[in-house]
């Protein structure tokens, strides 16, 4: 069983190139279902979740040609199936993103219902309700949702919660529907906006991207495009916080500073020195012990839930009391028990974790439970005195490209070992 062994106490120095965003790449791969022909995606991150999505599209009849430097040629003309099998959906919930495009393109889809996951129940009721409002007939049986519609019709859809993938799924479905669709209380994440811009390039008629009301006028046909994936703001935030954990300084290349405003604001409040050097480069430096700050996760442009576990590591060593409130997922504090093993003083009260800073963490064996928790435990290993081993790494490689190499090149003592 592979584990990461980290020897803490070594400050970081150097630069890190941020990869393309996982949560932009996945919906963009789904969008290739909407048009027939050759697509090219650039800056595709080499991640397990991306490989799983490629396998899913191959099951549906696509062919792929991976070029050099993270380019991917996609031929969607072989689309010949409308079924997303359980064994793939079980591995990656984002597989549900093929549902809207398949119904829009083929008039039918059969997609396994994603199970729950470590961080919460994560239902897909908004996705299903939206498709029904657009005229799809849904039947749920044997753990699959079967959706049929001769042609979807535009509809007015209100999201109780600004769901990222529900907004993406229904925005894609609406592109080929008959008439106008209005998505209200839509998600505003940069990955949603980037998907919408790719769809516009494909010929879709979309207005209001980045606001809570997105309006889509359906068209008859879309065309394939050549498209670059935006940088991963969650990976960028993770490396900003790696300096907060380990000390030293890093230059982050290939970032979009405007996507990082809530993150940079909060980290500056905690005492990290962060400079935006130009429109794609940020420099971060740690000067002494961080201050405890309160954090509340919110939909974009608020502080992202996907960085909640990581900032908790910084607060574990900060000089005071920090209240971290998770408003998006109902069970996203599994990393707390692991951080306690490293000496952190954290108490969970409902949806808040009360973090009392301690002078330092001490290394120990820990187990990752989900993708962002595994990144948090790597950061904790950088901060802790002595040796930390992180198990449960299948999660890490789903969402972080070569994290051990990027950190090692910046001076971290980190390597894979076989337990
Ligand atoms: C996306 O998940 C991201 N994944 C998640 O990143 C991210 O944490 C999340 O958005 C929030 O920002 C991808 O983009 C592939 P939601 P998603 O629908 O779309 C509830 C990572 O680590 N909800 O915005 O599944 C849901 O339970 C992953 O990269 C419903 O109730 O999240 C949650 O409480 C983790 N019914 C809230 O809404 C629905 O139909 C927000 O979920 C859909 C969602």
How many separate domains make up the residues? Answer: 2
Ligand inventory reads: ligand EPZ
The first-to-last residue Cα distance is: 5 Å
What's the helical proportion of residues? 25-40%
Bulk shape: globular
As an assembly, this protein is single chain
Helices, by number, come to: 14
| Uncertain segments | none
Mean pLDDT: 96
Strand content: 25-35%
How is the main sheet built? 4 strands, mixed
Rg, rounded, reads 21 Å
- Mind telling me the CATH class of the largest domain? Alpha Beta
Per CATH, the architecture of the largest domain is Alpha-beta prism
The CATH topology assignment of the largest domain is UDP-n-acetylglucosamine1-carboxyvinyl-transferase, Chain
Strand order of the largest sheet: 22-23-1-24
């Amino acid at each position: 069983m592979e584990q990461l062994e980290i020897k803490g106490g070594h400050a970081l120095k150097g630069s890190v190139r941020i990869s393309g965003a996982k949560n932009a790449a996945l919906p963009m791969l789904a969008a290739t279902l909407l048009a027939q022909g050759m697509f090219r995606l650039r800056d595709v991150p080499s991640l397990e979740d991306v490989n799983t999505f490629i396998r899913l599209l191959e099951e549906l009849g696509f062919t792929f040609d991976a070029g050099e430097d993270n380019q991917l040629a996609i031929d969607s003309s072989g689309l010949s199936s409308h079924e997303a099998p359980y064994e793939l959906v079980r591995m990656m919930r984002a597989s549900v993103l093929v549902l809207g495009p398949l119904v829009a393109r083929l008039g039918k889809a059969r997609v396994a219902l994603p199970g729950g996951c470590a961080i919460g129940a994560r239902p897909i009721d908004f996705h299903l309700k939206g498709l029904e409002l657009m005229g799809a007939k849904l039947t749920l049986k044997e753990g699959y949702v079967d959706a049929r519609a001769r042609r979807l019709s535009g509809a007015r859809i209100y999201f109780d919660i600004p769901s990222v993938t529900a907004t993406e799924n229904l925005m894609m479905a609406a592109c080929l529907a008959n008439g106008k669709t209005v998505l209200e209380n839509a998600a505003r994440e940069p990955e949603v906006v980037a998907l919408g811009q790719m769809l516009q390039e494909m010929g879709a008629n979309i207005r209001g991207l980045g606001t809570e009301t997105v309006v889509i006028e359906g068209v008859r046909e879309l065309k394939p495009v050549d498209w670059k994936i935006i940088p991963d703001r969650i990976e960028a935030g993770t490396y900003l916080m790696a300096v907060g954990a380990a000390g030293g300084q890093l230059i982050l290349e290939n970032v979009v500073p405007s996507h990082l405003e809530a993150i940079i604001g909060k980290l500056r409040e905690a005492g990290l020195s962060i400079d935006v050097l130009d429109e794609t480069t940020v420099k971060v430096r740690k000067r002494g012990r961080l201050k405890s700050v309160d954090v509340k996760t919110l939909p974009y442009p608020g502080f992202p839930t996907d960085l909640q576990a990581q900032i908790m590591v910084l607060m574990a060593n900060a000089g005071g009391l920090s209240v971290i409130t998770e408003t998006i997922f109902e069970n996203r504090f599994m990393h707390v028990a692991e951080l306690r093993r490293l000496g952190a003083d954290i108490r969970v009260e409902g949806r808040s974790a009360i973090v009392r800073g301690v002078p330092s963490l001490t290394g120990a064996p820990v187990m990752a439970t989900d993708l962002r928790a595994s990144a948090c435990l790597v950061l904790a290993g950088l901060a802790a005195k002595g040796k930390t081993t992180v198990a449960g790494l299948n999660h890490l490689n789903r969402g972080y490209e070569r994290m051990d190499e990027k950190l090692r090149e910046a001076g971290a003592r980190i390597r894979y070992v076989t337990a």
